[in-house]
UniProtKB/TrEMBL annotation:
Residues 313-322 have a biased composition (Basic and acidic residues). It is found in: Endomembrane system. Residues 311-330 are annotated as: Disordered. The lineage of its organism: Bacteria, Pseudomonadati, Planctomycetota, Planctomycetia, Pirellulales. Residues 22-304 form the HTTM-like domain. Its main location: membrane. This is HTTM-like domain-containing protein. The keyword Cytoplasm does not apply. It comes from Blastopirellula marina.
Length: 330
């Protein structure tokens, strides 16, 4: 009997593993994720436009040689490797030429034109921006870069794209389910849930999130905030700040764990919108807030919201009556 149990256990684990990773699904979700990643990537790349030469040209703040010294890239004993297409540009003209090519590639990726090719090119440029000066990396890059890599695996231009429109003009409207679409969505889901848990655990290691003051310190910074909420420092409103602080940590813990419960996905996705709008207005990290809201689409809560198809009287009568389990009363 013990051997039979372990056989069933291993069969159950292998079946669940294969069902989680290795099945086919519609490219609808991954196509929506392409739009989200493309818009955020385009905003991110455009943010370099005004000061590209000031930062990366020869004589700028971070020319190639200085970047190598600061990152340890010029040390032959270091084993890590950094690469950026902007390492091959040293003058403002060269930098802006590459920058223009990158903007075009990212825009084409966002609208879904020749997506198999433009996804790879856009990902190379996003990685190049991040790796050109890793000391400038903020909140967006650690999440945007891996999501772009995951989308390189999938047919993310199959729907909601110029490619789909061109295919429809030829009379081809059917889109087949894809294993790679499912794999890319799963990778994004796991990454996002772990990212939530990482943020929550990092906050739990900081005393200001325990004593409830963290949100006040974020509100009190005048440089980045999009809205002034410092009126909450009034003694009769301080409990709002304390409660908001603890709710931020609680939500990130709950999202990272319970987003895997399908019935809770619509609720958590809606709460994520309010969560990140609030933090985006207070901190000024609106690009990161848009990305986090958009990546909630990876969990595709729409199937939970869909109504079950109505059954006719004949279908109801033909459905076999469910029997009560034999041990229901035990």
């Amino acid at each position: 009997m013990l051997g039979t149990y372990f056989n069933r256990l291993t069969d159950s684990i292998s079946h669940s593993w294969n069902q989680f990773w290795f099945q086919k699904e519609s490219p609808c979700t991954v196509s929506m994720l392409r739009i989200v990643a493309g818009v955020v990537a385009l905003i991110y790349a455009l943010s370099f436009t005004s000061e590209l030469g000031l930062w990366f040209a020869d004589g700028g703040v971070l020319p190639y040689g200085r970047t190598m010294r600061l990152t340890g890239g010029d040390d032959p004993n270091e084993l890590f490797f950094r690469w950026s297409i902007f390492y091959f540009a040293s003058t403002p003209l060269q930098l802006y030429l590459l920058h223009g090519i990158g903007l075009v590639a990212i825009a084409l990726f966002a609208v879904g034109f020749q997506t198999r090719f433009t996804t790879i090119v856009a990902t190379l440029f996003i990685l190049s921006y991040a790796e050109r000066a890793p000391m400038l990396v903020g909140l967006v890059e650690p999440l945007l870069c891996p999501v772009m890599l995951y989308l390189c695996l999938a047919p993310c231009g199959a729907m909601f794209s110029v490619d789909a429109w061109l295919r429809g003009r030829k009379g081809v409207t059917e889109v087949s389910d894809s294993f790679l679409a499912h794999l890319a969505v799963r990778l994004v889901q796991v990454h996002v849930s772990m990212f939530y848990l990482m943020m929550a655990f990092a906050k739990l290691g900081n005393p200001v999130w325990w004593n409830g003051e963290a949100m006040w310190w974020l509100m009190a910074q005048p440089d980045n905030r999009l809205i002034d909420l410092t009126f909450l420092r009034a003694s009769n409103l301080r409990m709002i700040v304390f409660g908001w602080t603890h709710l931020v940590v609680l939500f990130e813990l709950v999202f990272g764990i319970f987003i895997w419960v399908k019935i809770l996905r619509p609720l958590l996705s809606v709460l994520a919108v309010f969560h990140w709008i609030g933090l985006g207005l207070v901190t000024g990290h609106w690009q990161f807030a848009i990305l986090m809201i958009g990546l909630s689409l990876a969990f595709a809560p729409w199937e939970v919201l869909a109504k079950e198809p109505a059954l006719s009287t004949e279908e109801k009568s033909s459905r076999p009556a469910s029997r009560e389990p034999a041990n229901a009363g035990v």
